[in-house]
Specification:
single chain, about 300 residues, alpha/beta, five-stranded mixed β-sheet, 13 strands, about 45% helix
């Protein structure tokens, strides 16, 4: 039995326990502060956790059928759930169980019967740790100038979307983009103005993306990319043209407002329904060739190959 016991909160918890009494008790303790999901078996937990992706899992150690150790092992094997912190719930004082749990990757233990204040304090501590880790990761994965994803983030996201496209047999499209004559722009107006252009262009990319899964990144210098999961070539070309027109329409004043500057962008587009054995490197190389075809063709244009 699965139940969503609360309204949406900032952080979510999955409580896994075969005892309805324990589930009710934990919800009463944590309900005011967190969104609570529950599962009354290990099997149901393994179905719901990849779907709900809670911030933290509270996992009963002793359950009929599949116990907490078995559930944790499977969570750690799944790339989508391996990083979710797991706290064991136990009525046992067995140190061997604790050692095994920590060895498998559990982050803490909460003992039954529940001490309300201790439960709250331990959950709060791990949520604070999680917040700090996410903040640090965001810094590592974000381009500091433009505020969009950096190259490392791009590489990780592209590989994830590529594998999903293979698995689900869907099209994936990619826009490789380069601001035209950026070096000349920098030389003419200075590097601070060039930075202003890069930041403004990044806002255009984000504004033109149509779905939450679309993903823009700065790849280096004046080069950017947009990953478009589950997107056909026709749809990708429409988005690429919107981006091109959006950049062309930009008017960026200099810092002293004495001049109005503008630029254009060249875009190479590729789209494919990849299959096992296809290489993501070949896909990106095609996009790069299309980008250079756009440059060679006079810039400020979109080029693609079937």
């Amino acid at each position: 039995m699965e139940k969503n016991l609360t309204n949406s909160k900032k952080f979510s918890l999955m409580i896994v326990d075969d005892s309805g009494t324990n589930l009710t008790a934990m919800d009463a303790i944590l309900n005011p502060d967190y969104q609570i999901y529950t599962a009354d078996s290990g099997e149901l937990a393994l179905k719901l956790i990849p779907e709900k992706l809670p911030d933290l899992v509270l996992l009963d150690l002793i359950m009929p059928g599949m116990d907490g150790f078995q559930v944790l092992k499977k969570l750690k094997k799944n790339p989508n759930t391996r990083r979710i912190p797991v706290i064991f719930i136990t009525g046992s004082g067995n140190e061997t169980d604790e050692e095994q749990g920590f060895a498998l990757g559990a982050v803490d233990y909460i003992r039954k019967p529940f001490n309300n204040e201790l439960v709250k304090a331990r959950i709060k501590t791990h949520i604070e740790i999680l917040e700090q880790l996410r903040a640090n990761e965001q810094l590592v994965l974000t381009d500091p100038l433009t505020g969009i994803a950096n190259r490392r983030n791009f590489d990780e996201r592209f590989m994830m979307e590529w594998r999903r496209a293979i698995r689900e047999k869907t099209a994936i499209s990619f826009l490789m983009m380069d601001l035209d004559k950026f070096k000349s722009y920098n030389d003419t107006y200075g590097h601070p103005q060039g930075d202003a252009l890069l930041k403004t262009a990044a806002k255009v990319f984000e504004a033109k993306m149509r779905r939450p899964g679309d993903f823009a990144a700065r790849l280096g210098g004046e080069e950017f990319g947009i990953i478009l999961p589950n997107t056909t070539l026709e749809a990708a070309l429409t988005i690429a043209e919107d981006v091109r027109a959006g950049i062309e329409a930009l008017y960026i004043p200099t810092f002293d407002e004495s001049k109005i500057t503008s630029t254009t962008i060249s875009i190479g587009v590729v789209s494919k329904i990849p299959v096992k054995g296809d290489r993501i490197e070949d896909f990106i190389t095609r996009a790069d060739k299309n980008l250079y075809a756009a440059k060679d063709g006079g810039r400020n244009r979109v080029c693609h190959t079937n």
